[in-house]
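quick one, 107 residues, struct below
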Amino acid sequence: MKKSERFAVSNETEIRVIYFDLLIAVTIDNYLCTFYIEGEKNFICTKELNKVENILPEHFVKIKRNTIINTRKITSLNTKERKILLYGNHNFKYAARNFKKIMTLIR
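---
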């Protein structure tokens, strides 16, 4: 069986197909899940972050309690400020306990 290259999420007005290779990051804030997608407008819905995490490939990593990133989109890592810069000029702070896991996936 071939592994899927995409998944679908929906909100009240739209169903969006998201391709793993275009997904930059996923965050959750106040029950709203935001998908940062390369070349597209962010998509917001009420999906639980742990359900999203379960369908993502292994090169996606949770860097904080509320943030998952695509390690293939990392452009730089600021270890002093614990920030990750991703494609499209998106940056997110990471938890120190996740540093080794992040480094393993980008090497």
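The mean pLDDT is 92.
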